[in-house]
Amino acid sequence: MANFLPETPRTDVGDATRFTQHDLSFSREESFQAPAGRDELFKKMSGARTPRNPLATMRNPNAKNEFTPMLKSATANRTRQVSGLLPGKMTTPAALKNGFRMSDSPLPEASSLDVQSSSFDHSIDGRTQLPDPNSSEMSTPMALPRRADGELDMGNGNGNVLTLREQEARLEQIDKENFGLKLKIHFLEENLKKMGPEFNVRTMEENVNLKSEKVTMSRDIKQYSKDLKAAERELENYKQQLRDYAEKVKKRHADAGMCEEMDELRRLAEERAAEIERLEDKLEEVRSAEDELEKVSAELENAQAECARRDQLLDEHEDQIEELENKLKNSQGSSSADIEEKDRQLREQAERIADLERSERELRQQADRVIELEQENRQLSEQVAEIATLEEQNRRLQKEADRVIDLERQLHSATNTRDDDAAEKERQLQARIMQIEEQNEKIEDLEEQLRSIERTKEAEIEKLQDKLDAAANGNDQEIRELEQQLDEAERELEAAETQKRHEVALAEERMRTLEREKDADIKELQRRMHTIQTEKDAELDALHERVQLAESKGDNQVQLARQSAHDAQQKVVDVTREKGVEIELLQSRVDAAESRADELEDYRRQFQDSMQQINRLQRDASEYEQQLQQLRQAVIQKDRDLGELNTLRRERDDATQEIQGLRSTLTSKGSQSDALNKAMQERDTLSRELNDLRRERDNLSSKMADKDAQVDRLNKGNNDRDALVAALRQERDDVEREMRNLRLTMSSKDTQIEALQKVTRERDALSRDLSSLQSTLQAREHDVTAFQKKIDAQEEALDELRRLKNDLNDRTRELEMVRKTVSERDAELDAMRNHADEPDTQIDVMQDLVRKRDDELEALREEINAQRSQVEAIQHLAEERLEALEELRDSANRQKQEYEDELEVLQEDADEVLEEKASLEEKITVLESMLREKENQVSSAQSESRTSQREEKAALENKLYDLEARLREKDSQHRKIQNEMKATQRDERTSLEREVRDLESRLREKESQLRLLQASAKAVQQKAQHEAYDLDAQSQALEKRHVKEINGLAKQIQFLRARCARAESFRQALGYQKSFFLMQIQTYNECNQEDLNLISQMGITPDITVHERRPKLKSAALVVIAALRMQKLSEGWAQNRKIHEQLKQKLESMRRLSGKRPGAGSRIAR
After folding, report:
1. Which of 288, 318, 337 is the last residue of a domain?
2. Which end of the chain is more exposed for a tag (fewer CB within 10 A), N or C?
3. Is the dihedral of CA 973, 979, 984, 985 positive or negative?
4. 689 with 754: CB under 8 angstroms?
5. Distance between CA atoms of 757 and 688, rounded to whole angstroms?
């Protein structure tokens, strides 16, 4: 098989030697077919690498140390296989080797001739099949194994075939396997350790507890399942009864009474369903008891959070200390003036800080001593905590008992109308439980006292630590350094204030001189500008006048005018040059004045800077004052700390007394623990009794339900009573069977105890049945008495009706009497009216009488109407009462008959129960003797447990004595430390008081100096502010005036330019006209001369007559054009005229203000 080398054909010819030949196809096939997912193949192979043999044979040791030597050998073998230490040839698969046996069935080896046999039809372990040999002679080379077909499976261990990435993946897989093996070995070692005797004992205890809990839970679950099954049966019975009643109703056409019974049955069914739901809710409540454990864990987490919070508080205190040190360093750096003095002060402060650190170390040593005391106190608290854990266990048990009580109360509320005897036993149990609760409350009070004492001690220790930290931080050397810094800062303040005052005075003088010079220069410049402007205006006016004169004189004087104009222009140029020089001088002066103004602004800025520095110094002084106040507060705080230390000493003495009291309470705690053990035993017995009572109560509830059903049946008829008697007999037979079973299960003591419990339960159940029957009898009797009372009440109501009838008769009589009186009064009135003829006095009297009688009549009528309404109401009530009495009589007679029938049946049941009770009491006596034996055994076990508890108590007392001795030693050490602290604190306090007094005196002096300086600085500042305000106002006024003057100058310049432009245009137009007319005249003269010459040559004399010129359209058009042009020119000039008028008004106002002559302005106004 290993030497077989198949060939792959080029054609699909097939093998004609076999019968399994299918339809042949001689189609030519390609030697290579592209795979289906070629693109995906290339994507997968994009990052792959070809294997390299040299890397596979390298011996690379593992970097990590293995967990066990066994794993080392395993991993070494694995790495040898992976890294290629084994022979690197291609090994043959196991299935192709000689002697390979298939896993499914022992088939014969496959031969090379029959390759299509059953052994090669299906691949083994998911490997690919060999290619089929075919009849083709032409062979092609074998295809390489494919990764997708599993040929290069990493499980084969062929490292030379794997790529580097696959090798890395394989190594990662091996590392994961090694980690899993390490974990397994670790857990196996833990299991080996736990196989010791201690762990065995613990596991046994845990198993016992788990089994006991399992048994109790299984019993409870069985009981609940029984209850549920009974409830389901009752539901089925009720449903069946409902169906029967429905059928009966359909058959008999039931009346309203049957419908009421159906409704009652439905209501009972709903109540039973509600009881089932309540039982399920109780089961869920029992399961939700684990939430309390989570609450306890949450409380533990809160305690851990409180510890972390305390650590954070300590860290915050340390951060505050560091911040205070940084503040001291910053204040030292900001308050120093010279760098050398700063360095010296920093060195001194470093030395002082070193001293402070030494003192801090000493205080920390003292704090470590306090911490040691705390640790010892914690040990004591741990011992108390152990007691508290025991008490917590007791509390948990108590909580479980409370839950049981709650369940009992809920069940009792559901069945309180039917089981009175069970309620009495539950009251007894509750009384016992209340006693246990009182004992637990006493224990809780003691625990709370212990916790309060521990809290007070922890608070005292924390206060001591805080005080030690405060004493370490607030030392005298820091106060002295701050005082020196204050003195230096005050000196610097005084020097800076004197310098600033001198500088301010100099700056003020310079500002005043500069302002004076500036004002004088500005006035001179204004004067010169005004004179220059007037001179220019006068010269321009003269030139214009000369030009106009020259133009008016004619052509002969044009040259003279030009010459004079040229001379005038030359003079203007010279004057402008001179004025330009003067303007440059004035500009230089203006620049100098502006530079002085800039200097003034610089001085103002310097003054403002100096004021800001003064403010800064004042702030520094206020900060130093605050620091002094803080120091005073620190001194006061130290005094308070001393007082608190004294109070702490007193509290410590009180705490020692409380510790002694706690020791006495611990001694009493031992007796209480014994009482607790007894209470625990009693509670166990009570829990058992509670379980028994539950079962009995459930049985009673089922029995009472049956009895209720039986009573209902009795109400229905005598036939149902026979069925009830049969059911009771069946129950008696069941009880007898249970008694026989109890006799059979009396072999062992445990079974005897259980039988005794069952018998006692049955006895109690029977007694409860008797009591319930008696209670039902009593209830029926009470009902009878209640009905009798109702009958009596109805009879009393009848008597009342009779009385009402009598009252009605009396009222009718009264009405008749009233009617008679009314008729009599009417007669009197008539008589009075008949006697109306008497004097006026009698008439008045009679009118008064008539009015009174009318009022009385109206009152009587109202009474009559009210009585009528009352009579009608009473009659209505009487009728209703009579109807109700009849109904009550009928119902009372019916219920009386029913109760008599029930009493007969219940009496028979009571007789039968009494017989059963006598037989069961005999059995109970036997079982009680067996119980006494068990109680003797339990008492012997309790005595042994008491001896063990006494031994533990003696050991705890010895530990307490040792702890007391340690506490005494620590108290003596603490007293020594306190004495030393007192002495140092006294010295520090005296020195601090002296220094504070000196500082206060210095502060008073400095404060007085500061007040003087502040007053002087305020005065200087106010003066400077007023002067600055005045300067600003003046400068603003000057600026406004300057702006207005510039605007006026601009307007003047604008007007002058417009005027000059107008004059120039006029001149140009005149010159052009003049030249045009001269040229025209010249042409006319020349033409005339030529004409005259021609005429003279021709000998013709001209006609002397003058011909008039005719008006033409062209002349009219030219006139219109000229008018339009003149209109436009006048409109343009009107704006300039407005400016001119404004300037004239401004000049007149200026002249009025200045009182100057209007000589210069008249020229401009022209």
Report:
1. 288
2. C
3. positive
4. no
5. 10
Neighbour-count burial of 397, counting CB atoms closer than 10 A to its CB (0-12 exposed, 13-18 middle, 19+ buried):
middle
Q: In this structure, are residues 162 and 87 in contact, taking their beta carbons and an 8 Å threshold? A: no
- Domain check: are 55 and 169 in the same one? yes
The partner residues of 9 in beta bridges, in order of sequence, read 139
Let me know whether 190 and 222 are in one domain: no
Q: Give dist(CA 657, CA 457) in Å, integer.
A: 13
Residue with tokens 């401009």: 1164
User: Does residue 723 fall inside a structural domain?
Assistant: no
Which residue, chain included where needed, has tokens 């800062």? 489
pLDDT tens-place string over residues 750-801: 555 565 566 567 667 766 776 666 676 677 667 667 766 767 776 676 677 6
Query: Which has the minimum average pLDDT: 59-63, 557-561, 958-962, 1111-1115?
Result: 59-63
118 and 243 in a single domain? The answer is no
How high does pLDDT run on average in the chain?
68
Rounded distance, CA 627 to CA 483, Å? 10
Which two tokens mark 675?
Answer: 């009482």
Domain extent, residue 590, equals 480-665
Residues 612 and 532 in one domain: yes
- Contacts of residue 607, defined as CB under 8 A and 6 or more positions apart, other chains included, come to 503, 504, 507, 1024
Residues 6+ apart with CB under 8 A from 885: 794, 797, 798
179, 223: one domain: no
- One domain for residues 184 and 224: no
Predicted confidence at residue 682, as pLDDT, reads 65
- Sorted by sequence, the CB contacts under 8 Å of residue 508 that are 6+ apart come out as 1024, 1027
Q: How far is CA 1096 from CA 286, 1088, 1090, 1091, 1100, in A?
A: 164, 12, 10, 8, 6
Tell me the CB-side half-sphere exposure of residue 770, using CA atoms within 13 A: 14
Q: Choose one of 647, 665, 683: the last residue of a domain.
A: 665
User: Which tokens is 674 given?
Assistant: 């014994």
Cβ proximity of 1004 and 580 under 8 Å: no
Asked if residue 525 belongs to a domain, the reply is yes
> Residue 432: its pLDDT value, please?
64
Residues 906-944: pLDDT tens digits? 777 777 777 777 777 777 777 777 777 777 777 777 777
Distance of alpha carbon 759 from alpha carbon 924, whole angstroms = 7
Alpha-carbon gap, residue 43 to 1075, rounded angstroms:
105
Domain count within the chain: 3
Please classify residue 714 by burial: count the beta carbons closer than 10 Å to its beta carbon, then call 0-12 exposed, 13-18 middle and 19+ buried. buried
**Same-domain status, 138 and 276:** no
CB-based contact 878:804 (threshold 8 Å): yes
Cα–Cα dist 635/1001, whole Å? 17
CB within 8 A of 476, min separation 6: which ones? Answer: 988, 991, 992, 995
- Residues 716 and 1033: their CA atoms lie apart, in Å, by 121
Look up the pTM and report it: 0.20
- Please say whether the beta carbons of 1059 and 1163 come within 8 A: no
| CB 914, CB 770: distance < 8 Å | yes
| Angle CA 1155–1156–1161, to nearest 5 | 130
Lowest mean pLDDT among 225-229, 308-312, 323-327, 335-339: 335-339
Closest among 595, 653, 527 to 974, alpha carbons compared? 653
The dihedral sign for the CA sequence 847, 853, 858, 861: negative
- Does residue 109 sit in the same domain as residue 230? no
Question: Taking each helix axis from N to C terminus, what angle separates 840-1098 and 339-414, rounded to the nearest 10 degrees?
Answer: 140
Residue 1067 lies in a domain: no
Q: Has residue 616 been placed in a domain?
A: yes
Question: What is the secondary structure of 842-875 as a DSSP string?
Answer: HHHHHHHHHHHHHHHHHHHHHHHHHHHHHHHHHH
C-alpha span between 265 and 242 (Å, rounded): 7
Cβ-proximal residues to 1078 (8 Å cutoff; 6+ apart), any chain:
555
Contact 265, 242 (CB under 8 A): yes
